Amino acid sequence: MDQLSDMSPWEAISWTWAAACSLLDQGKDPRTYLVSTLMDDAKRDLGCSQLDPKRTVQIIVKLQAEGTHSWPNCPIEEVDYLRHDHRHVFHIEARKSVKHSDRDIEIIQLGHAMREYLGQCFWSDEKNLLIFGSRSCEMIAGQLVTEFSLDSCQVLEDGENGAIVTV
């Protein structure tokens, strides 16, 4: 019964019912099994993370976006060219915790939402790319973490150098 106490009543009924139906499909009488046995079987067969509070599941969204940025006040002479707008393909990887392993948040939909958000905030019709202004990789990642309640976001310039922001 400990397993049931970690779940909402709906979850307990749902998973127990699924296990009982599975037994019926196999020609077995589910009334001869303990509820805890049914729960163990459902947990094993379905691999559902919501049945195991010690397990965490994160989804990962990766996207690339062409854009420019600059560091106008760059104090380092060796890289003084960073003071001017320069183009990168920004490689973005976002991670977000989910409550269960069956599409709690649809990965493709989150990717679309992130791409749309970047376009709304930074798109330039004139340049046909994203204009991040003086935002660093750290700032871009932090903005995405905040906007989408992400656990972490990594932003790399051309897939090489960049930053990761973790909550």
Give an account of the 3D structure:
The chain folds into 2 domains: 2-51, no CATH class; 57-166, 6-pyruvoyl tetrahydropterin synthase/QueD (Tetrahydropterin Synthase, Chain A, 2-Layer Sandwich). With 167 residues, the chain is an alpha+beta fold. The chain has helices at residues 2-5, 9-25, 35-46, 107-122, 137-148, and strands at 57-69, 86-98, 123-124, 129-131, 152-157, 161-166. Strands 3-4-1-2-5-6 form a 6-stranded mixed beta sheet, with helices on one face. The model has no long low-confidence stretch (mean pLDDT 86). The protein is elongated, with a radius of gyration of 24 Å. 37% of the residues lie in helices and 26% in strands. β3 and β4 (129-131) form a beta hairpin.
